[in-house]
Amino acid sequence: MRSTDPAEYEIDRINRRTYGDSRVVKEYGSVTGWLDPGERACFDYARAVGAHGPLLDIGVGGGRTVPMMRAFSSAYVGIDYTPALLRRAQENHPGVDLREMDARRLDFADGTFGLVSFSYNGIDSVGDTGRSQILREVHRVLEPGGLFCFSSLNHEGRSDRRLLRLPSSAEVLQPNLLLRWVRETLVSLRNMQQSRSLVRETEKTSLRPIAAHFCGLIGRYTSLSEQIGELEQHGFVVEACFDNVTGSPALGRVELEDVDCLHYVARKTA
After folding, report:
1. pLDDT surpassing 80 at residue 3
2. Which of 63, 192, 195, 229 could cross-link 92 (Cys pair, CB 3.0–4.6 Å)?
């Protein structure tokens, strides 16, 4: 799906290029298990409240989430919009129903799924327009009362604002390591320059480079209060939210500066 919005199109171009890079595909294809305590807490909650029915796993990447999500439901479908990542997922999980599809245009009937998952801040890989499209589509394909579990970058967090790192003492002392650091830093600076026109910052959201993959991704950061409001506008109510650091509940907390991302459990209202 190609957006007619120039900014959305450019975000797509940058992020798809990075997701399709052979090094990223190799990395994502080798990761297994839960990413952090918050992700595990999110799905433990979903299981505790009786998540059931067919499950849609959006953004499967290299297939990390496939075995964990299939433990929730045998009626499982996984999708990703990056062909190279999807091929790796299919290699890692032969015979599983994995399809190339964009979350902004889901090819499923209304009310098909009881649970929809979108992990690893995948929803942040599009702009504001794309995010609204995803929330509308997820709401449409969920059955009444169904759950949407996803993670999103935290606008109030501070750690990911440090896009460039200083060389370590080992890198300073070893010319080959120092040269590699210089090369990686130059790549990051080039990527930051290419995405500079897309950067914006508001009180509750921001669109800016992500430090991972040499600043080769543009991510949408959202505050907890803003995300709750967006979900409510699209017909969801937030039942739970967990931080990525300790897996502790985040609803009602004031200080979230040490939290990189938040894991949400939202229910489709009847």
Report:
1. no
2. 63
Q: How do the domains of the chain map onto residue ranges?
A: 6-155+216-268
- In angstroms, the CA 200 to CA 11 distance is 13
C-alpha span between 41 and 34 (Å, rounded) = 10
For residue 114, pLDDT over 80 is answered with yes
pLDDT at 14 over 70: yes
The mean of the pLDDT values for the chain is 94
Q: What is the pLDDT, as a whole number, of residue 160?
A: 67
Q: What is the mean pLDDT of residues 143-152?
A: 97
DSSP characters for the chain?
---SSHHHHHHHHHHHHHHTSHHHHHHHHH--S-SSHHHHHHHHHHHHTT--S-EEEE--TTTTTHHHHHTT-SSEEEEES-HHHHHHHHHHSTTS-EEE--TTS--S-TT-EEEEEE-TTGGGGS-HHHHHHHHHHHHHHEEEEEEEEEEEEBTT--GGG--S-PPPHHHHH-HHHHHHHHHHHHHHHHHHHHTGGG-EE-SSEEEEEESHHHH-EEEEEE-HHHHHHHHHHTTEEEEEEEETTT--B-TT-S--TT-SEEEEEEEE--
Q: Is-above-0.70 flag for pTM?
A: yes
Which DSSP string corresponds to 187-209? Answer: HHHHHHHHTGGG-EE-SSEEEEE
Domain at 6-155+216-268, CATH class: alpha beta
